[in-house]
Amino acid sequence: MTDPAASPAQPPASSLPPPDALRIAVACADTEEARAARTRLVHRYGNAPAEQADVIVALGGDGFLLETLHRALARNRERPTPVYGMNRGSVGFLLNAYREEDLAERIVAAQQVRLHPLRMVATRVNGERVEALGINEVSLLRETRQAAKLRITVDGVVRMPELICDGALVATPAGSTAYNLSAHGPIVPLNAGVLALTPISTFRPRRWRGALLPHTAKITFDILEEAKRPVSAVADFTEVREVLCVEVAECREVGLTLLFDPELNFEERILKEQFAP
């Protein structure tokens, strides 16, 4: 935790107002359980406009929390509103336990984890360039029955001249337990200062399982035989079809704040996940 560039900075709880002055905005997924929970919380704590809130309480699953973080970025890219999630979905890995009592006090006492997304710059075969941010990961996926052929360059050096696969992804530490884990990629602790580069269903070279890269790395994917083997690129929710080249790097100038109850903070969750049966 000594390297500030690699560490998820944890601002002090005093950066939030005291519980009796805390302005809470409540957002929920479009499910009956989440909507009912929102109604109860709004009745109990009020509901400030998102643009004026000190914190956004997100009710749903991990996917909805990701949507909430992207909305916070869209409203204020320089200072996105902190997000405190409570599980009203299925897995809820990024969410706190749902409890209605003492919510303002829990939020003010929560540990604040700073996350930096990935910036994707995708160039399509027609020359169009599309930029997007990925909080979890940036992934490349084959579009047809034909396997993708990728060339992977890291910091200007070609590290993988040809990878034949269903795709590949670059995951942040926060996203390493999502799609990356499903593709048999490593779980990355938040303070490790690395990104996970993980292939998806590798055909050749058969034994390549991916790499851990410094968080400062700039990764470039060139699509080989793009006409025969079209590939799409996805940064969380933004999909770009028929790409020719995709550049991925951590976006240090953008920071998001997630709030976690101290008794089971996010770093502890990632550590426990590595020993899960």
TrEMBL record:
NAD(+) binds at residues 62-63, 136-137, 166, 174, 177-182. Residues 9-20 have a biased composition (Pro residues). The active site is at 62 (proton acceptor). This is NAD kinase. Residues 1-20 are annotated as: Disordered. InterPro entries: ATP-NAD_kinase_N, ATP-NAD_kinase_PpnK-typ_C, NAD/diacylglycerol_kinase_sf, NADK. Its EC number is 2.7.1.23. One of its GO terms (molecular function) is NAD+ kinase activity. Belongs to the NAD kinase family. The keyword Cytoplasm applies.
